[in-house]
């Protein structure tokens, strides 16, 4: 007869259903019901079986360690996703701009005149534009990763920065730095604040703007002459660099001297590198990368960190030109920078009139 017979059931039934089940110790211990023993069944029990207490299962140490690692990784992901350790979401700390200032010392007496129109007219700046009229932008074109509109916005912001930092009367006279500050990325605003406050600053004031100490210098003519160019190129896939190269010329005289005091011209050649990402273009902010200046007539001992101190009409450069620099000395961080101002860069007013001024 096919199948297996079960003494208590029909052929083909019985333990065939449990043929693949192994009744080992673990199976028995896992049972939720337990039959009473023979002795217990002799006692007065209404039920044939009793419930077994649930066994406390211990978690392996490896599982605990793995759980801790997963929790730590999850916490780190939340931390990095919500913001970076520098306090700005999705960005990195901006470095302060690099900067150099090279004073240009004249060989002789600085010429001057009470007539600023004459000063400008007899100098290489005679054909320069006045104020923002002399700051001209090139044609904007798309780059590999920036549209024409984005490039045009970056160029416009660069022009605004040059105008704010080198042409604005209130900035030049030291009254305020707000026009410059408003254009900077928020991180660099704090760096500029430290430069204005003096003391230990990551970048000197001349890195950010052109200004004069109002206790020493005043503008003899509020109109600044300027000429220069802009260029642009991608320095990375997501960064557009705009470089501004301009010569600005200021008519200056000693503070409080009055209009009858002869003025002279201070010429500043400035190269400024500015960076723009998509976010900065949308927010209309500038990241200043580097600013290098040549300025004269100035004394070689001029403070490179503070406002510019030009030599005035009738003055000469001091004897502070470095006699020599020893490259073997350890004090390499304080190597003086100075240049000689070519006489052709100075105005040449009427010699007969100039002779009566000094």
Task: List the SSEs and their pairings.
Elements (H helix, E strand, L loop, with lengths): L24 H5 L3 E3 L2 H5 L6 E3 L9 H22 L15 E8 L10 H6 L7 E2 L17 H19 L2 H4 L5 H4 L4 H12 L7 H4 L8 E3 L5 E12 L2 E16 L9 E13 L1 H6 L3 E10 L42 E2 L10 H5 L3
Parallel strand pairs: 3-9, 3-10
Antiparallel strand pairs: 1-2, 4-6, 5-7, 6-7, 7-8, 8-9
Q: What share of the residues lie within helices?
A: 25-40%
User: How many H/I helical runs?
Assistant: 11
User: Major sheet, described briefly?
Assistant: 8 strands, mixed
Distance between the termini: 140 Å
Output mean pLDDT.
81
- Quaternary structure: single chain
Tell me the Rg in angstroms: 41 Å
- Report the strand count: 10
Q: What percentage of amino acids are in beta strands?
A: 15-25%
Question: Please, could you describe this protein's structure?
Answer:
With 358 residues, the chain is of the alpha+beta class. Helix content is 26%, strand content 20%. It contains 11 helices and 10 strands. The protein has helices spanning 25-29, 38-42, 61-82, 116-121, 148-166, 169-172, 178-181, 186-197, 205-208, 278-283, 351-355, and strands spanning 33-35, 49-51, 98-105, 129-130, 217-219, 225-236, 239-254, 264-276, 287-296, 339-340. Strand 6 (225-236) and strand 7 form a beta hairpin. Residues 1-13, 76-90 and 352-358 have low confidence and may be disordered.
């Amino acid at each position: 007869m096919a199948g297996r017979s079960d003494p208590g059931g029909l052929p083909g039934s019985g333990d065939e259903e449990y043929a693949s089940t192994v009744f080992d110790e673990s199976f028995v211990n896992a049972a939720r019901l337990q039959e009473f023993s023979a002795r217990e069944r002799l006692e007065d029990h209404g039920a044939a079986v009793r419930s077994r207490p649930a066994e406390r299962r211990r978690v392996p140490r490896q599982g605990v360690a793995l759980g801790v690692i997963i929790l730590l990784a999850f916490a780190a992901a939340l931390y990095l996703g919500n913001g970076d350790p520098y306090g700005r979401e999705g960005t990195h700390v901006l470095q302060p701009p690099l900067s150099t200032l090279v004073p240009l010392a004249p060989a002789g007496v600085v010429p001057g005149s009470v007539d600023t129109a004459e000063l400008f007219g007899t100098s290489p700046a005679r054909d320069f534009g006045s104020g923002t009229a002399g700051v001209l932008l090139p044609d904007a074109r798309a780059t590999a990763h920036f549209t024409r509109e984005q490039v045009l916005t970056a160029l416009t912001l660069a022009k605004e920065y040059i105008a704010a930092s080198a042409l604005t009367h209130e900035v030049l006279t030291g009254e305020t730095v707000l026009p410059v500050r408003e254009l900077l990325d928020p991180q660099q605003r704090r760096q500029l604040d430290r430069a204005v406050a003096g003391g230990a600053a990551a970048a000197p004031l001349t890195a950010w703007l052109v200004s004069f100490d109002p206790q020493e210098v005043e503008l003899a003519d509020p109109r600044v002459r300027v000429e220069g160019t802009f260029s642009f190129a991608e320095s990375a896939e997501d960064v557009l660099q705009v470089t501004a190269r301009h010569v600005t010329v200021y008519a200056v005289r000693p503070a409080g001297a009055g209009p009858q005091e002869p003025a002279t011209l201070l010429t500043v050649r400035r190269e400024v590198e500015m960076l723009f990402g998509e976010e900065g273009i949308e927010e209309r902010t500038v990241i200043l990368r580097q600013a290098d200046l040549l300025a004269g007539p100035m004394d070689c001992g001029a403070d490179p960190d503070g406002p510019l101190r030009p030599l005035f009409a009738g003055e000469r450069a001091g004897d502070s030109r470095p006699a020599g620099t020893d490259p073997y000395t350890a004090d390499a961080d304080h190597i003086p920078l100075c240049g000689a101002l070519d006489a052709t860069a100075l105005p040449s007013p009427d010699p007969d009139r100039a002779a009566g001024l000094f």
